[in-house]
Structure formats: structure tokens, C-alpha cells
Specification:
Elements: H1 4-9, E1 11-16, E2 37-38, E3 42-43, H2 45-55, E4 59-64, H3 69-78, E5 89-94, H4 108-113, H5 116-122, E6 126-131, E7 134-136, H6 140-150, E8 154-162, E9 170-174, E10 180-185, E11 199-210, H7 211-222, H8 231-241, E12 245-249, E13 266-268, H9 272-283, E14 309-311, E15 320-322, E16 325-326, E17 331-333, E18 336-338, E19 341-342, E20 347-348, E21 353-355, E22 358-359, E23 364-365, E24 370-372, E25 374-376, E26 381-382, E27 387-388, H10 392-398, E28 400-401, E29 407-409, H11 411-420
Parallel strand pairs: 1-4, 1-6, 4-5, 8-12, 14-17, 15-18, 16-19, 17-20, 18-21, 19-22, 20-23, 21-24, 22-25, 23-26, 24-27, 25-29
Antiparallel strand pairs: 2-3, 6-11, 7-13, 8-11, 9-10, 9-11, 28-29
Organism: Succinivibrio faecicola
Keywords: ATP-binding, Carbohydrate metabolism, Glycogen biosynthesis, Glycogen metabolism, Nucleotide-binding, Nucleotidyltransferase, Transferase
EC number: 2.7.7.27
Amino acid sequence: MQSARDVVRQTMALVLAGGRGSRLKALTDTRAKPSVYFGGKYRIIDFALSNCVNSGITGIGVVTQYKSHSLLRHLQAGWSFFRNQMNEYIDFLPASQRTDEEHWYQGTADAIYQNIDIIKDHKPKYVLILAGDHIYKMDYAAMILDHIKMGSPLTVACIPVPKDQARGFGVMNVDQDWLVTDFVEKPLDPPTMPSNPYMSLASMGIYVFDAEFLYEILSRDAGNRDSHHDFGMDIIPPLVQQRMVHAHDFTKSCIRNRGNTDIVFWRDVGTVDAYWEANMDIASIQPQLDVYDFNWPIWTNQIQLPPAKMVQDISGSSSILRNSVASAGCIISGSSINQTLLFNSCRVHSNCFLSESVIMPFCIIHRACRLTKVVMDRGCEIPRGMIIGEDYNADSRRFYRSEGGVTLVTRAMLAKLRQTEPELFEDFDNYKAPVAMPSY
């Protein structure tokens, strides 16, 4: 039996990071979904990449397409520590029409196929294919070892999810040996698990292929004009019919919360409500996602910034933080912050009240503002006295209001509001951010 160290050295990971993630609305107007900020200091893609590094996989390709500038800048700045002399690498694989001059990536399988020559150059024995837009901690080495043990050329990671949430996933059935007996991509009426009629077994978008087998099926699929060139729709179903696919139980490889080992955390933060909820977990008293585990660190790009600072306002009122995260470079003056994440270099002026909110980097919130259940995109500046999250009609007119009651605020929305309601901006403070905002 091969050791984990042996198999990860024979594995190349490919992170699919080209999707827009349109259900995140304006958060992905200028960036791909994997590049969206998360958890107070990270980007979403940092979790898949950190899992690779922590698992011992240091041969990685990142496949990009939609508005990838922000993502590529982040990867160049924060993920450039690989050592070529040790056969470590992170390849950026943007859509570049490598196999023909007519098409960009047509689907997930086509995105891999168009880079097949690069993959072959690295000579992997196993290819690990990952979605770059999910939040979780996983030891991929354990899954690869499981793949070898089960003996099928393809292994798909899976996790039970409530039936009403399974419509956005590939859903499978397995036998007692975890051989996949049925697979349906994004069904309207998801099949449930035999042991639980309220839960469905969902694909996590994590695949391990024998490399030679992958090359063969991708070449075959590329020649099929009727194919969508997608793993879930076109590649996996016929392989399931041929009994060539095993499932990997995520509970075998999940890196668990040290405070509660019963927790198995995996989130698709594909909607504004799901994104807000997952961030709120970080700020809770006992988060389900343990980002404080030094044995499984989440790597990211870190700008050199001063520590966060909380000071009294001019009247002597102190700042109060409850169940909140304040990242480096933040300055909070005599305000109350509750169940909120402040990313780096945010400025909260005096007499503000922030509750259940996600404030991305370089935001400025002027005096006497009240924000409740808000997601604020990078670089927003809120005028004095503005109230967001308390009036459904006003929030819906000015910003985007989700079904779950989360108000999304972006710079473009504020610029439009400044044209339609200029009186809100008449008393703007002339505050300058302590650090110049980077261009990405």
C-alpha cells in the first residue's frame, strides 16, 4: 500500500476557478466567484489551495476564465512561495484557446481538456479536480488513498445535504461498497438516501482520476458535438452506468473542528444569503469552521498593515465589540459592533451601530450610521447618518435586498444613489483611508 506522501507527489491538482457565480449578484460584477472576499481576511479560493498545500500537494493548476484579473493578482501576490527546484509549482491556466481558435472554455471538462498538454508535461499519475468556490477543510491525501483502495478510475467526493438544497448539485446513489449506482446533475426532485428520506447524497465537485483514463475520456468527449463538455452532465453519468465510479465519504477526510469533532463543515457560498450565513459563522462564539487551527492553516495574501485599533470618540465614548472580527488596519471610534466581520483597513467613525454585517476591505462608515444584516463590497464609503437594513422598501430601492433579508451594497450602487438622492451625501466627512486601496 502506497503512503500518503507517495501519492501526493504523483498527483496534480486542478482548481476550476473560472465561474462567475451569478447568484452572488453584484459581488461578482468585477471578479470571479473564487476571488470574492471571505472570513475577515481570505478569498474563497484560499480554502481549496490551502487544502492542497496542507495535504502535501504542491503541483497545482488554477483554471480561470471570467474576469480573472483580481484572482490572478491575488494568486501572484499571495501564492508565489512554491519552489521550482523542489518540483513545486502553481500554474495559471486562463482560457487561451489552446486547442482551437474559436472557443473559450465550454464546460468544466473542456476547461481541463484545453490544458491537457500542460497536464501531460507534469506527468502525474493521478489528477485531482477541485471547485475553487467552496468553503471547507479537507485532507485530499486521504481521498486519493481511498481512490487507490477502491480501484475505480474515478472517485467523486460526496456529502449528505438536505433534499431542498440538493437541486444545485449532482446527486448520487451508492451501494454498500460505495460504488455509485446512479448520478443525476441538478435534479428538480433530488433522490434521497435510503437511510434518510430528507437527505440527498451530493457531489462536492471534487474528483480523483487516474491520469491516463482522464486523458482518454476527455479526448473522446471533445469529439462529441452533442456534449456540453461538463463533468456532471456528460462525463460522470455514462461512467456510472459502466460501474466505473466510486464515491468518497467526506467524513473520512474532513479536517474537523477541534472544539467539536462531530461537525463536518462544507459550504457552497453561491448565494448572497449563503455567503452571509457562512461569514456569520466565523464571527460566532463557537464557529463550525475552525480557522484557528495552526495544524491546518488557511494561507492567503497578507498586506503589511498595522494592528486593528479601537479608540474613544471625541466625547469619551468607548468602542464596543461583541462576537466580531476586526482585521489589521481597522480603526473604530466610539462605535458598537455586534456579530460583524470587518476586513482589513476599514474605518468606522463615532456613534455607529453595526450588527450581523460583513464589511469588506477599505470601507469607510461615517458618523451615526446604522447597518443591520449588510454585506458591503470593497471600498464603499457610507455617508453620515445612513441607515441600511431596517427599511425593506428603502433598501430594495437603493441596493439589492436578498430573500433572506440581507442588503448588498456596492460602490456602483452608492454612485447611482448619489445621483438620485444627492441630499444623503451633502455632509460627507473628508476622511482619507489610512492605506491606499490596491487596484485589485
